[in-house]
Amino acid sequence: MFLRSSPILVLTGAMSIACDQGPTPPVDAPRQPAKPAFSLEFIRDSEGLTVRGTGPIGTVATLYRDLDRRFDCPLGERSNEVTEVDGLNASAAMLPVEHLLSALCNSDEASLQLDSATRRVTGTLGKWDSRLRDVIASIYQDEVHEGWTFSLTAVDAPNVVPSGYGSLEIPSDIGPEMVTLFNVDGQVPFTEPLGAGARLLLRPGIYRASNGDHFAIREGFRTNFRPGNPAAVVLGGKRFPLDEDIPSVGLDSNPELSFHSPAIQKSCAAQGGCFGARVDQAGKSIALDELAKLRSSVRQVVIHSDGAADSAEAFRYWAARQVSTHLGIDFDGTVIQYLDLGLNAYHAGPQNLSSIGVDLNNSLVPLHREFAAAYPEGHTRALEMSQHPRPISSTVRINGHEVKSYGYTEAQWRSMLAVSRLLLRIFPAIAPNSPTALDGEPETFALAEPGAFSGFVGHSHTSEMQWDPGPGFDWNRLAEAFAPDAAPR
Q: Cα-flanking dihedrals φ and ψ of residue 469, to 5°?
């Protein structure tokens, strides 16, 4: 930091993504000469006090774009102008300090005071503004120019996402992997590389990471992004990692468990087809590369029991009968993707076109009739099955019938919640709720107009002839995925 009495004040510093910059070195500590990562110039002229930034294009672009993205107050038309210089440096247009202070003052998480009598700016920046604080507050700290003192301090503000934004967090346990984020339809990175523990606010939409993964931001929701996580689902050919590292089988991992397998497609075609294309409101087919249309076309998740000993047995049954679904969750929690989410699976009749099908493995033994084991005796996976016990449900009246059966394993619940969190973020038209009765308890009857409901439903909600996912499915537990800050436990 330097204090100059000349008309132009040049401050230099390094940009940090981490929320904690660490201890400040002693004043007399030796410093090695180094080229500054960026510089800010405060210039007093006829237009007032302005600031100009110069430095690596990523750093300067991030600073100015973060100002626009984080605050609703307009920062001036010139605030986003960044031009490339020699392929390495950038010179950002001047940004009026008055606009900057106004934006900070109007932030829901900032508390600043401008005292014109003492010509002092004091206050705090919230937790979500910590990255901006790393760039600005550390530079302003106790610096004086034209008689003004800037003193900004970061605080651990409540974990609230401002209106109009969603948040992105990269968990701190993913290791040293770094990713750069891109707009889904752009080629220019709009932020510095992000590593473990990074956090920032983004406008809702689909973004692409430099490693090829995609992620979705939903307004008001937190997205925990694990780049490179093998557990992922595919929409329109794009990978969207789950926020937990759980067992998974991808579309191309096992041709015996994928409707995209040439052999399975040939078998399906001979029977008239096992799936189709999604269509828009005009009835026109939606291509797999039209992500925006695909996302807006889905407003419902239909939860089924697959009625089989394991997910592989269920798939073989479907493929032989022109039936399909998008995702399966086996008894051990393995998430299996059978079909691209951008395609229309044949799983719930009239709800097919606007829904995602999720089949939880469960033979759904009718214990209300006679007792039977949760898993078939002598199964080739009997040892594995014994390690995943199923609880016995209470008797519940579903669509007018008293039913009792086995519920779902803990491994299945972990995966079901992770899948639900991801689907909510990918498809903004899916509401974070499930049907409830007048007394506030989970609805146990078919809906009068199931297609009009947005959210998560059971197969039994779509037809009075069905009773899956059964009395052992805990709808209140599913609601854990509906909270905006839902995250792995």
A: -80, 10
Q: Are 425 and 216 in contact (CB under 8 A)?
A: yes
Let me know how many helices (H) and strands (E) the chain has, helices first: 10, 28
Show the DSSP H helices in 240-379 as ranges: 262-270, 291-297, 311-319
Asked if the 248-482 domain carries CATH number 3.40.80.10, the reply is yes
The string of DSSP letters for 151-168 reads: EEEE------PPTT-EEE
Backbone dihedral angles phi then psi of residue 286, each to the nearest 5 degrees? -100, 125
CA distances from 52 to 11, 40, 381, 435 (A): 11, 6, 66, 54
Q: What is the pTM of this model?
A: 0.72
Pairing of strands 335-337, 248-249: parallel
Q: Are 365 and 374 in contact (CB under 8 A)?
A: yes
Instruction: Decide: 268 and 322 in contact? Cβ < 8 Å.
Output: yes
Using the structure block, give the residue that is written with the tokens 């998740």: 301
Q: How do the pLDDT tens digits run along the chain, 489 residues long?
A: 222 222 222 222 222 222 222 233 333 333 333 333 334 444 444 444 344 444 444 444 444 444 444 443 333 433 334 443 333 333 444 444 444 444 444 444 445 555 555 555 455 544 434 444 444 444 333 333 344 444 444 333 345 566 677 888 888 777 666 777 776 655 444 455 667 777 666 778 888 887 889 999 898 898 998 888 999 999 999 999 999 999 999 999 999 999 999 999 999 988 889 999 999 989 999 999 999 999 999 999 999 999 999 999 999 999 999 999 999 999 999 999 999 999 999 999 999 999 999 999 999 999 999 999 999 999 999 999 999 999 999 999 999 999 999 999 999 999 999 999 999 999 999 999 999 999 999 999 999 999 999 999 999 999 999 999 999 999 999 999 999 888 887
Two tokens, residue 207: 């973004």
Query: What type of residue is 238?
Result: K
Residues 6+ apart with CB under 8 A from 58: 189, 191, 192
Q: Domain map of the chain by residue range?
A: 8-24+35-154, 166-228, 248-482
In sequence order, the β-bridge partners of residue 238 are 235
Q: Which amino acid is at 332?
A: D
Residues in contact with 313: Cβ distance below 8 Å, sequence separation at least 6, in sequence order: none
Q: How far apart, in whole angstroms, are the C-alpha atoms of residue 172 and residue 175?
A: 7
DSSP string, 300-339: EEEEEE--SSSHHHHHHHHHTTT---SEEE-TT--EEE-S
